[in-house]
Amino acid sequence: MDDRRELPRKLAHEHLARGDATGWFEALYAEADGKEQVVPWADMQINPHFAAWLAAHPRPEAAKRALVIGCGLGDDAEALAAVGFQVVAFDVSPTAVAWCRDRFPASTVQYAVADLLKLPEDWIGRFELVLEIYTVQVLPVELRRQAFERMAQAVAADGTLLVIARGRDATDEPCNMPWPLLHDELKFIETCGLREVSFEDFLDQECPPVRRFRAEYRRPATITSAKS
Ligand SMILES: C[S@@+](CC[C@H](N)C(=O)[O-])C[C@H]1O[C@@H](n2cnc3c(N)ncnc32)[C@H](O)[C@@H]1O
Question: Residues 160-185: pLDDT tens digits?
C-alpha cells in the first residue's frame, strides 16, 4: 500500500508547495487514467466501517436525501442508493466524477463536480444524511474547520452527519499524507449546530491495524411553535 502512496504524496507535496490544497486529486485521477491500482483509496467496494454503520441503521421509509462528500469512485454513494436514498455524490476531481459515471451508467446517483470548501448554496440544509469518508484527512489542518463547517451546513433539520477518518492523539508523530485527525478537531463540528451522537475510536482489521474514528452527529429537529 505504501508504494501506492508515493505518487499521491509527490503530487500533494508539489501542489501544496504552491498553495493549491486540492489540485493534486485531479492530477492523480488523471494520471491513473482508469487504472484503480494507482489510486490508493480505490477499493472498488463499500467502505467496511460505513457498511457496518449502514447495516445497523434502518432503511429510510420515505425518500431521504443523502450527500456523499469526496465520493472518489462512487462505491459508498451506490450503496446508499441501493438502500433507497436519493443520493448526490460529489468530488473536486472531474476525472473521478466521470469515472463514477462510467462505472455506474444506470445509477440513480446524481454525480457532480464540486468543492466542499465552496459548497453550492442550494445544498445547504438539504440532506437527511451527509457522509464524509477520508476526505478531511487529506486536507491541510488549516482548512479543516472550513470543511467541517460546510459539511455541517448541508445537514437538514433532524439529519445526520457521519464522519469516518484515520485518528491520532496530539502526542503521536505527525505522518505523511494521509494526515489523521484529532478528536479535538472533530469537536469543532459541535460548534456548527450539530450534536455528537456517537464517537468510536478503534483499530481496523488492516495489517498492520490502522486507528480509525467513526463519529455521528445530528442536527436538532426544528421546533414547531405549540398551538395556543
Ligand atoms: C482519500 S479520498 C477518499 C475517497 C472516498 N471517500 C473513499 O473513501 O474511497 C478523498 C477524496 O476527496 C476528494 N476531495 C478532496 N478535497 C475535496 C474537496 N475540497 N471537495 C470535494 N472533494 C474533495 C478527492 O478528490 C478524493 O476523491
Answer: 999 999 999 999 987 888 999 999 99
Q: Does the beta carbon of 160 lie inside 6 Å of ligand 1? A: no
- The answer to whether 153 and 69 have CB atoms below 8 angstroms apart is no
Range of the domain at 160: 43-218
Q: Is 133 a pocket residue for ligand 1 (Cβ < 6 Å)?
A: yes
Report if residue 156 sits inside a domain.
yes
Does the CB atom of residue 74 touch ligand 1 within 6 A? no
- For residue 53, the number of C-alpha atoms closer than 13 Å in the C-beta half-sphere is 24
Task: Tell me the average pLDDT across 31-47.
Answer: 97
Ligand 1 mean position to 71 CA, how many Å?
6
Average of pLDDT values for 49-74?
92
CA distance 172 to 210: 13
